[in-house]
Amino acid sequence: MPNQDWIERTRRALWHPCTQMKQLERLPPLPIARGEGAWLIDYDGRRYLDAISSWWVNLFGHAEPRIRAAIAAQMEQIEHVILAGCTHAPVVELSERLAQLTGLGHAFYGSDGASAVEIALKMSHHYWRNCGRPEKTGFVSLIHGYHGETLGALSVTDIALFKDTYAPLLRPTHQALSPDARQARDGETPAAVARRAAADLEDYLAAHADTTAALIIEPLVQGAAGMVMYDPLYLRLARQICDRHRVHLIADEIAVGFGRTGTLFACEQAPGARQVADIADFLCLSKGITGGFLPLACVLTRDDIYAAFYDEATARGFLHSHSYTGNPLACRAALTVLDIFEQDAVLAANHAKAQRLTEWLAPLAGHPRVAHFRHRGMIWAFDVIDAPADFALEFHRQALQRGVLVRPIGATVYFMPPYVIDEAQMRLLAEVTLDLLDRLPG
Ligand SMILES: *Cc1c(COP(=O)(O)O)cnc(C)c1O
Fold first, then answer.
1. Phi and psi for 41 in degrees, rounded to 5?
2. Model pLDDT for residues 28-72, shown as the tens digit of each residue
3. Is residue 114 domain-shared with residue 59, that is, in the same domain?
4. Is 112 a pocket residue for ligand 1 (Cβ < 6 Å)?
């Protein structure tokens, strides 16, 4: 069936995420029949470079053969079993390997990023309650932070367009200054901005630590804010401040985990940190965890936090659950992702690849319409100075016509390609972007 038929049936039956459906009149959905590496292929046979890794979930390209084979093999054994009272090899092996990679000894599973955030928030409060501090119910996040869209996660999210409508349903939380490196005043370095933001956090916790359970942050890159990047020093300072005031630090690495920022986990880049456990009390993972194949989320935490729930009393235990917790197919996919990181020495390969793409994108850094060209690991972003209100939609629409799938956030254009992007695809991405910047009206 050709594209057009799928578009019409979509209009009649579907309600899309993060979409004003009326906009589909101007920009119909892109029907995708299959994927191949960094390419998406529609029902009419046209190819599109997936420059945003299908909403940041894909790592090694579409239809990666090793992940496909691992899921197929697991399907022959057991597709799913209740995880309350049962256990199985994929979930045990994955928990052991993630513990070894992060230093956080116990793993709890959910089905998507927002559920991981809910789990971490509830666990943090419940820990303090079990420790005789039930008044620690508050949460701090960063200005323009994003942690998902369920009510708890949205309460710590600070993106007006997603939040304002539902404000009457949400718990009040505090937003501390973001260490956004673009906020540098005259002569200020990114590290100085990080120190200034840390001082703001310190001021808040000095007054409110008694009623605060946790700080939740996106380490190094605030994704949905428009790929806001900041100095790793902030992670170290935030850890020290949380220690000083006895507040948990929740690292939401749902978008930045699994190599996106150049290290396996972003927290590892904090000065002096050897592993995630040196920075975070809770680590939220999802998106790339299965290479983009299946929904899975994981919250890792320290053994001493886990121990505070271990008791004869049922209600002191963490009684949260989701039906698909620890799904064996998804865990098998995640184990294969970890294997691929080792087999293909992915982090080293990405380092070289990132240098090449940065070279291809160099003309953008000096373009007269571009401000704050920035890059960390396998993420690139820049702000368009004179972008009109419909810039994001128009850029997206015209890039698709040239075979590139990108979705700017407001006036920010970003790239988060699958790690398998090759030289010809880098060139296409750079050429299309430069051409659109020259042609789109200001
Ligand atoms: C995507 C994202 C979430 C939410 O994950 P979902 O799977 O969409 O619920 C939470 N935090 C961050 C940082 C994210 O990028």
1. -125, 125
2. 999 999 999 999 999 999 999 999 999 999 999 999 999 999 999
3. no
4. yes
